[in-house]
Design a protein that fits this description.
86% helix, 0% strand, globular, mainly alpha, 264 residues
């Protein structure tokens, strides 16, 4: 019994050390890629054509999924809030709940998670494929830094486009709440519109935008990092793609908590 218990303790310690070492290594790799990205961001040549291409991939191509996700999220919030507030005769405040929830919290988080699943995974898969097929080694042979050529445009495209997708999410989420409240729950449209903007401040909008900037940075750096360190052929590419989505999503949710705590 004592041997069994001591064996279990050793196994738990080994597991803790293994996971701690792994995640410390991942955090170190993240900050290394982040440092190199900003270092090479100001080095010539500036490939604006590639930057524009990545902005279209991150932003324009993600509009449909962000639109649908935020539209129905706003609709669900309005539906659930209306049913709850009706018990206290506070239906007039549903618009305020929807608008504040979307601007400060749900639009940036949903946009980031949608882009992570769609674009962050593609970044990991694309760069990972280049790594296992030795195309990145070929870039070194051509005196081209792969971080400058591959990662910098993707990171800055995500930083620029996530706030724009968040603004789209704000509008569609509020619209979804309006449609449900007015046309399904029979709320007064004039009262709902007044309630929507009653408690909104400009800083509520800024909070969502600041979060979106950080989320765009996180998902792009993690996606590119996992692709850049891919090993093991096609199986390794699939593993890196999965890890990129999972790690980006976790980092986004963790950073969302701390940003919510820090920001006004």
């Amino acid at each position: 019994m004592l041997f069994s218990r001591s064996h279990q303790v050793r196994a738990i310690k080994t597991l803790i050390i293994k996971f701690s070492t792994y995640y410390l290594g991942e955090i170190g790799s993240f900050f290394y890629i982040l440092y190199k990205t900003f270092f090479w961001s100001f080095k010539k040549p500036f490939d604006f054509k590639n930057w524009l291409k990545q902005m279209v991939r991150v932003g324009v191509s993600s509009v449909p999924v962000v639109f649908l996700a935020t539209l129905f999220t706003g609709a669900v919030i309005a539906l659930e809030t209306f049913e709850g507030f009706r018990r206290f005769h506070a239906e007039n405040y549903v618009g305020s709940v929807v608008s504040l929830s979307m601007l400060r919290e749900l639009s940036p988080v949903l946009a980031a998670l949608m882009v992570t699943g769609r674009v962050g995974s593609a970044m990991a898969a694309e760069i990972g494929t280049m790594k296992v097929t030795e195309q990145i080694d070929a870039l070194y042979a051509l005196a081209t830094n792969p971080i400058h050529f591959l990662i910098v445009p993707r990171v800055w495209a995500s930083i620029f486009m996530l706030p724009l997708l968040t603004v789209l999410g704000d509008l569609t989420g509020i619209a979804g709440g309006y449609l449900v409240s007015v046309y399904i729950m029979d709320a007064n449209p004039i009262v709902y519109e007044a309630s929507t903007f009653q408690f909104l401040d400009l800083e509520d909008f800024y909070v969502g935008i600041i979060k979106a900037v950080f989320f765009g940075l996180i998902l792009s750096v993690v996606g590119c990092m996992k692709g850049f360190y891919t090993e093991g052929g096609a199986e390794g590419v699939g593993r890196s793609t999965t890890q990129a989505v999972v790690m980006s999503s976790l980092f986004i949710l963790l950073s969302d908590f701390f940003l919510t705590k820090i920001l006004p």
